[in-house]
Structures are given as structure tokens and as C-alpha cells.
Amino acid sequence: MEGLISISEVNSMNDERFEWVFRNVIELCSEAAAHVKHMRPFKDVTDLCAAFSKYLNEVSYEVLMSHPDLAGRLAAQVELTQESASEQHSAGLSDLSNAQKAIIDSSNKRYKEKFGFPFIICARENKVQSIIDGLNLRYGNTRDEEINIGINEVKKICKLRILDIVKNE
After folding, report:
1. Global pTM?
2. For residue 41, which of 18, 15, 12, 11 has the smallest C-alpha distance?
């Protein structure tokens, strides 16, 4: 898509176009756009972000399962969406040293075994060391704490992806 669109353009889109444009603001969860389209009209981009946030509050933690692992061997096993690849690159995860890859690999594996879903952090708001620190720090949390943190990180990712699409007027 070229350029940013206005909130009035968002509100006037047909349903099919809305679903296509917003299909991946929540990673591999086009159902979110299908749900949120019914909440139009939005008064501004904040209102649009709030609608996706409300959707995330209402869905199961399974929405966390659609997120890719960060860098390392586990991440290499799946093809990243364009958005995820760009976000991981901006955090420096595409330029890891072998030592950093090994640390992230083992930490991702340990985290996923404990919680049953991948470690989720808004890569655009972090760099490699803060991601490694987050993996280690958050491993001490309970599963419920990590579900809540994960959903909140998805909300941050979603908001940034929406702001890549819609003008913040």
C-alpha cells in the first residue's frame, strides 16, 4: 500500500478492503480485522487502535501462538511476515553474533517450553540486549503474568502497525 490513509478513508472502505488492509496488524490474525470492521466509524486513529485493543482483550491467549520466535534457530523454521521481518531487523535481530543467536535460541526454547507460546516483545521498541534481558527476566513470571504481558506487547505491535497504515491526524 502506498502512503498513509486517512481515518475517513478507513471508514469508507468496503468490508473486503478493510479486512485486506488490516489483515496483519495482529500477527497472522485476519479474524481481528473481520471483527473490528463492524465497529466503524472510527473518530480517529486512536479510536481504531482502541477497537483492536478491545478485540485483544476479548480473545483467548491463543492469539499469542501466531507470533514468530525472535531470531535464532526457531525463528528460521518459519517464514516471517513482511511486518515481523522489518520489526526484527529494526531491533538488530538480523545482525546477531553467534553468541547472541545461541543465547536467544536457548532462551526462546526454555521460555516456550515453560509457557507454551513464544516470547513476545515489541521489537520496534527494543534492541538486542533489552530483548535478551527481557527473555531472562520474564522467565521468572507466572503463566498468567506472561499471557497479560504478551497481550500488552501485541497491543503495542498492533498500534505501531496501524500507525504505519493510517495517518495520525
Report:
1. 0.90
2. 11
